[in-house]
Write a sequence for this structure.
């Protein structure tokens, strides 16, 4: 494994990315595999593809059985939540509570670590689920399931950008344990995500979706820097949610 530690990419990176971003029942990895956690971030888009792929299978089955698109959209969301253990939704709710529930960076981080959820967190979850459900249900009849795959892939490809661009605000937790990825791994992940999405919905729409998601990420990163001085695992999860919503709405607006 020491040889793999020096490699730019390794097949084990895909398994590591799945362990980090999903709750899928995967074979146990050797401890040495987790030495590649930072480098494995290039494979985050593939984890997004796996998550959305399983969800879309459930949606396709629902449509095959004659269920309406709104029900298929609900099942897709359910499978995504089960597959990820709702880690991104949890991050979004913690960020909403912390960023707007505290008056100092220290207090905001304390609130984000609290397992209890407040009004801001509830509202963030309701709006996130509602917007994604509505976007799914609207897109499925006109564009099929492909845009859902694209949104999952692109939204996870930008998470490592925050890991590099912002310092860890807490010094502990999942984001801190993974570490700061090398920029080459970040660019590989972004390139992979763009190639996959372009092959699914075409390069122009894929680029438009990516750029709109990037604008959302930029604004979100600026808020995170002001509120807590950097990023945490919760901030990364919140980024995935907001960027996915932005990408879905961009594809929807493009008709």
């Amino acid at each position: 494994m020491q040889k793999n530690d020096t490699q730019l990419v390794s097949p084990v990176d895909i398994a590591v990315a799945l362990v980090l971003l999903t709750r899928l029942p995967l074979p146990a990895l050797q401890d040495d595999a987790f030495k590649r956690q930072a480098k494995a971030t290039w494979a985050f888009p593939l984890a997004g593809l796996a998550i959305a792929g399983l969800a879309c299978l459930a949606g396709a089955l629902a449509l095959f059985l004659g269920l309406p698109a709104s029900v298929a959209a609900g099942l897709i969301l359910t499978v995504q939540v089960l597959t990820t253990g709702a880690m991104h939704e949890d991050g979004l709710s913690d960020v909403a509570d912390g960023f707007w529930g505290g008056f100092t960076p220290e207090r905001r981080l304390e609130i984000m670590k609290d397992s209890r959820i407040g009004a801001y967190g509830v509202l963030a979850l309701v709006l996130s689920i509602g917007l994604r459900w509505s976007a799914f249900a609207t897109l499925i009849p006109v564009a099929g399931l492909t845009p859902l795959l694209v949104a999952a892939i692109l939204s996870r490809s930008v998470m490592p950008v925050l890991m590099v661009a912002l310092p860890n605000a807490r010094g502990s937790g999942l984001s801190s344990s993974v570490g700061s990825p090398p920029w080459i791994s970040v660019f590989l992940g972004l390139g992979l995500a763009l190639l996959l999405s372009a092959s699914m919905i075409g390069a122009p729409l894929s680029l438009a979706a990516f750029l709109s998601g990037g604008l959302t990420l930029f604004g979100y990163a600026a808020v995170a820097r002001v509120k807590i001085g950097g990023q945490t695992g919760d901030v990364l999860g919140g980024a995935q949610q907001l960027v996915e919503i932005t990408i879905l709405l961009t594809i929807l607006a493009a008709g």
Observations:
- The mean pLDDT is 94.
- The chain has 13 helices and no strands.
- Residues 142 and 181 are 38 Å apart (CA to CA).
